[in-house]
Amino acid sequence: MIFTILSFSACTHLGPRHRQDYWYKTATRCAQGPFEIRVPARGAPWGEQVELAVFSPRKLGLRVDFRTDDQEKFTNARMGDENTMENKECLAQAETPDTPGGAPPEAAGKGPAGQPEVPPQPEAPGKTGTDIPEPSLILENPGQGKWQARPTTTQNYSLILFDVMRGTPDGPPPFPKGKTIIIRIWSVLPNDFQDVRILIHHQAYVPYPNEKKYVAKLRKEERDRQRKAEKRQREWTRKQEKRQRERARRQELAAKNPPRPAPARPARPSRPAKVRKPVWQACVTGRYNGGRVSICRKFGDYQEYTRCIKDPADLPCWHRPIKGRWHYAIAERPKPSAGDDRPKPRPADGPPPAPQAETQPPRASENATWVPGYWRWNGFQWLWLYGFWRVPQSDLDQEKTAVAPAEPPPARVEVVVTAPFPDAVWTPGYWHWQAATWVWVPGRWLVPPSAGNQWLRPQWRRTPRGVILVPGHWIRR
Known about the structure:
Layout: H1 2-11, E1 13-26, E2 30-31, E3 35-40, E4 47-56, E5 61-68, E6 75-80, E7 139-140, E8 155-165, E9 180-186, E10 191-192, E11 197-208, H2 211-256, E12 280-288, E13 291-299, H3 302-310, E14 369-371, E15 374-377, E16 382-385, E17 388-390, H4 393-397, E18 403-404, E19 425-427, E20 430-434, E21 437-441, E22 444-446, E23 453-456, E24 459-463, E25 466-470, E26 473-476
Antiparallel strand pairs: 1-7, 1-11, 2-10, 3-9, 4-8, 4-11, 5-6, 5-9, 12-13, 14-17, 15-16, 18-25, 19-22, 20-21, 23-26, 24-25
């Protein structure tokens, strides 16, 4: 009989059953989001589970917001290694100290003697993102039924977004059919999504071994809970009645034998004020080898007195008025004034806006690769950092950068705007040779890859082949 009960309880349960896998990959290598994925609810009568899994060959830092379409607010979660992201290939101004940086984006104007120039950069240090639009689906779904085997990667992250089971035999499904699960993926800094796969694993809970036995188990558990609740209620009622009887008996005894009044206590004598103990010493005087010898010992708080003279900042010595000693007070820290209502920096509480469409400046070398810009949070709002051309060291060694027939015109005098970030460095503009004419590339603010780096502006160097451009880059001080 015992074996039958244990077997019935262990084998009858709710278990997940695979329903659908949604595989995604990003359209670009460097992306920051927000990506939005909508998963339709299956309307499983016993519950559903939605899991987000990311398979990556490198460390990522992701933030996930999820909700259903009938909820107003997102639930926030983090996954990955946000503090140790391996995304240097996607960070603007994240070059190594010996790798040249790039140029700012283009804009409209006129160069010297009516020559065209790169369009001027906006006067603001970075384009702000105060109005965050609704994120769009910019992930590519390669189709259902593909990549059934999970890819082998070094960094795997998973997060269960929804896990709801129905615990009663009667009731509606936790996720009715027609409801949509909204998942939003974004990051504070852009991630390197090359060879990264994103999986939405959707499962439905079903009863085992069958629904009839599972419903019978739930009803039996419900009857057991009800019996236990009734038993606890009867026990509590019995104890309450016992307490009431005991209280009535004590009141009856107190009425028959009233307590005697307690004698009045004598008034406590007032203690005299504390006074400092006197400092005194005892000496023993004698003669030894024809000389006079005295041995003295000091009593009282003489040792405390000497200690406070040597170290007046000691805690027991503060605010103790003793004659003949300096009075030392505790230095109070300056408190902020009541009128200081400056806003304090706060962490990013939502995804950045959609990436901006950038106009690439002239290519700095033959094999230069374009690193797109991204949004960065400055403590109050999102600011856009422009993309740049990353020049490989081989192009510099083989002089495959831009070549001009003569020296460029004198540099322009630029107006330096306010820095968007405390650690930003102003990089002046320069002349670039393109299409048989000089174009001016305006300066901009850059964020150094690490502390202690210094920016070297682009230079034109005369060689036997002509005047060759050496792109700007970071060096260690």
